[in-house]
Amino acid sequence: MITFNWVENWEQPFPDFMNHKVCRNFDALLDWVNRKSMDPKVFQKMQKPPPGWPVMPEPGPAP
C-alpha cells in the first residue's frame, strides 16, 4: 500500500514510497484495497489539501 502526502509546490498529493512494512495476508490487503481505493477521477480533481491539512516542505518520508 502506498500513502500520499501533500507537498509544497506540487499540484497533487505525492506518493510516499518509504513504507518498509511487509504484508502478512496479501489476499486480505487486496480485498481492502478493492473496497477502499480512490476513484482515479477523484484523485485527478484534487488540486489542494483541505483547510488545515499538513503540507510537507518537500517529498520524503512522512514524519
How do you describe this structure in short?
About 25% of the residues lie in helices and about 10% in strands.
Describe this structure in words.
The chain is an alpha+beta fold and 63 residues long. It has a domain at 3-45. 27% of the residues lie in helices and 10% in strands. It has 2 helices and 2 strands; from the N terminus they run ββαα. The protein has helices spanning 26-36, 40-45; strands spanning 3-5, 14-16. The chain has a two-stranded antiparallel sheet. A hairpin with an 8-residue loop joins strand 1 (3-5) and strand 2 (14-16). It is flat, with a radius of gyration of 13 Å. The model has no long low-confidence stretch (mean pLDDT 83). Belongs to the ustYa family. Pfam families: UstYa. Residues 48-63 have a biased composition (Pro residues). One of its GO terms (biological process) is mycotoxin biosynthetic process. Residues 43-63 are annotated as: Disordered.
